[in-house]
Design a protein that fits this description.
- By secondary structure, the chain is of the alpha/beta class.
- About 35% of the residues lie in helices and about 20% in strands.
- It is built from 19 helices and 21 strands.
- The strands form six sheets. Strands 1, 2, 3, 4, 5, 6 and 19 form a seven-stranded mixed β-sheet that branches. It has a five-stranded parallel β-sheet with strand order 8-15-9-10-11.
- The radius of gyration is 23 Å and the shape is globular.
- The N terminus is likely disordered.
Length: about 475
């Protein structure tokens, strides 16, 4: 077994190379910090700008101007002198002697061997972005059922588009964005099953006037919906009681329409979506405090306006701190980097404040629409808390009924539920059941979700093999010597 060796100290380690991570790296380098960015992807961009410049569809503008706008951010990152560790998963961060030591696993690629390495840093920025909100329905584990986000990833990375009989079900901006992208690619959609309640506008209306500050977002949404209408795609609004049927794979999707009439659509591919929520696993493993956001029905870390978390020398920026979209994420990354630079002594407070003002003003505008979108598209409790026969924990095949039954016996929270039922003990480590399990316990015991809590996340937060831990790998000379361009 090869002994791990700690790499030389850098100033800032950023986990995630999406908009927030790239923007933070650019600003931190401008301030003179030595920056290493680790990301699981093959290249820069994160989920939103995945495969930008290499996607078979990028030049045809199938994915839209917002996707192509990421090129400027990537080019500025490349010119910044920040170091990118691609194909690298951060699976543990520990603190010793006033610094953070991150343990990463890097996947092999070509002649490059895979293995594990350590990176020490004076500060850490978590920019791990968002994940799709789990939406457990009957049949969601069948082959032929996947998330809209996963389908969009295939479109960006490989140019793979779903078949013509695909049915999109759920709600939220991504549902309409993906439908419009498929139309741009010359593909068709069988139907859209929109679960947004018809009266959702009543809750959204008080937020309408402030949302006008971000009117460009609203106009984009209107254009996407009009594109779907022009294409003649059937849209079933106000749907509820969605389920998927099939023997060996998905064969049809059933739902009740807004008039209470049961309907069924035959299809071999169902793409589900109920919005996105912050990805909190890494932040939780670091001990960062989180709170339950009632407006968007999800957990989010407690941070200040500049991304500082409850743990010393740890900042969180982008959608991992709260959903705001790509542009807001980049601005949040910039603000976090400026605060880190001040904390590490390379910027004084007046300089930080002067450089922060444009980003703070722009961030306020980009976030103005979020309360309206949360009121419109946060799924109702009936959609988030499935029937007893629905599988909640896909890894261990635990149903909602089993969770409710254990909760009725007095199980106090998700961690005790894990011990009783193995919920959250599979490869996803609770990413796809944690929020639902907490809500089910709260429902049965008539307690606030915030009081019920969430799983205790322990390292490794991503699956890692013994072989990978045993194989220590070295970085290239620039990394090893700790040399960065001035």
């Amino acid at each position: 077994m090869t002994q791990l060796s700690t790499q030389p100290l850098c100033d800032l380690l950023i986990a995630g190379a999406g908009p927030a991570g790239m923007a933070a790296a650019i600003e931190a380098r401008r301030a003179g910090l030595q920056v290493i960015v680790a990301d699981e992807g093959e290249a820069l961009g994160g989920q939103i700008y995945r495969n930008l410049g290499h996607s078979p569809l990028a030049d045809a503008r199938v994915l839209g101007d917002d996707y192509l706008a990421g090129r400027d951010l990537i080019e500025r990152f490349d010119a910044s002198g920040a170091r990118l560790l691609s194909r690298a998963s951060v699976w543990q961060i520990a603190f010793e002697d006033g610094r953070a030591v991150a343990m990463l696993t890097r996947r092999p690629h070509g002649a490059d061997a895979g293995g594990t390495l350590d990176i020490a840093a004076r500060a850490v920025l978590v920019a791990t972005g968002a994940q799709e909100r789990p939406w457990p329905v009957r049949g969601w584990t069948l082959p032929g059922v996947m998330g809209v986000g996963a389908a969009q990833t295939l479109l960006k990375s490989s140019g793979l588009a779903p078949s013509r009989d695909a049915v999109l079900a759920g709600c939220g901006p991504l549902l309409w964005l993906f439908a419009s992208q498929l139309l741009n690619a010359g593909r068709q959609v069988r139907a859209i099953i929109d679960t947004t309640p018809r009266d959702a506008w009543r809750a959204a209306f008080p937020h309408a006037l402030p949302a006008l500050a971000g009117a460009d977002y609203l106009l984009k949404g209107v254009r996407m919906m009009r594109a779907v209408k022009r294409a003649g795609i059937p849209v079933h609004r106000g749907a509820r009681v969605v389920s998927i049927e099939g023997e060996a794979h998905a064969e049809r999707v059933r739902f009740v329409d807004e008039h209470g009439v049961p309907r069924a659509i035959d299809t071999s591919l169902v793409l589900l979506h109920q919005g996105v929520i912050p990805s909190t696993q890494l932040a939780r493993s670091l001990g960062c405090e989180h709170r339950w956001d009632t407006a968007s029905a999800c957990w989010r870390p407690r941070t200040d306006a500049r991304g500082r978390s409850s743990v010393e020398r740890v900042w969180i920026a982008g959608d991992g701190a709260g959903i705001g979209g790509a542009k807001a994420a980049a601005l949040a990354g910039t603000l976090a980097a400026l605060e880190i630079a001040r904390e590490l002594g390379v910027l004084d407070a007046p300089t930080r404040d002067a450089r922060s003002r444009p980003a703070l003003r722009a961030l306020k505008r980009h976030l103005a629409v979020r309360p309206l979108l949360d009121a419109l598209y946060t799924p109702r409790a009936a959609l988030r808390r499935p029937a007893d026969d629905v599988i909640v924990c896909r890894c261990e095949e635990i149903t909602a009924g089993e969770v409710r039954g254990i909760a009725a016996l007095g199980c106090q929270g998700p961690n005790q539920m894990k011990a009783f039922s193995r919920c959250g003990m599979g490869p996803c480590q609770g990413r796809w059941c944690g929020t639902t399990v907490g809500e089910l316990i709260a429902q049965v015991q008539e307690r606030p979700v915030a009081e019920v809590g969430y799983y205790r996340i322990r390292a490794p937060i991503k699956p890692v093999t013994v072989d990978e831990i045993a194989d220590s790998i070295a970085l290239d000379e620039d990394f090893t010597r700790g040399e960065f361009p001035s």
